[in-house]
Amino acid sequence: MKKLKILALTLFLTSPLLAQKVKVTEGDWSNLKNIASYNLAFDYSNLEIPKYDSEEEFLKDKMKKREDKEPGTGEKFRESWFADREDRYEPKFIESFNKRWDDKEIQVGHDTGSEYTMKIHTTFMYAGYNVGVVRQNSKIEATIYVFKTDTPDQILFKADYTKVEGSGAMGYDFNSGYRISEAYAKLAKSFAKDLRKKLK
Questions:
Q1: What's the pLDDT score for residue 20?
Q2: Domain residues for 191?
Q3: DSSP strand E in the chain: where?
């Protein structure tokens, strides 16, 4: 019985690590050697949202449900959905990535003037939910591109990250924007970890 409990605990702790995957589809990690600074670009085009044919369909559905309950809240939801990208997701990615380098060996940011650009193209987004007694993590999938800033068509590196989950500490993540921002933090952490490991 004790062995079963230990096994169950091990699976619980490691399952998020096993779920997340990375696949390099163009270039190689070695192409990123000696790059110390990246200009960041974020792309949310053609975003897939589960159970909906498009992001716009998702927004219309969520806005209608909110408007039916309380007029005016539908438009507020739409505004916050897009504002969260600049206000939450992108700063969270930057913060999470940069703090992985104690000596600031590699840093990312908006408009850094760097010779290299790292583009984060989010291809899938699921907000998850938290209604107190029941909750589910947010999930994102993204393709990370690296190229010289002045030659964006010449890809040095491209990798797909899938099943990246986000959740707040101790389950106190009732806001969808906050939950999703934690997935971006996890994406940045994972990429920084992979980068460190591959460039040793």
A1: 76
A2: 21-198
A3: 21-27, 37-43, 107-109, 116-126, 129-130, 135-136, 138-148, 155-166
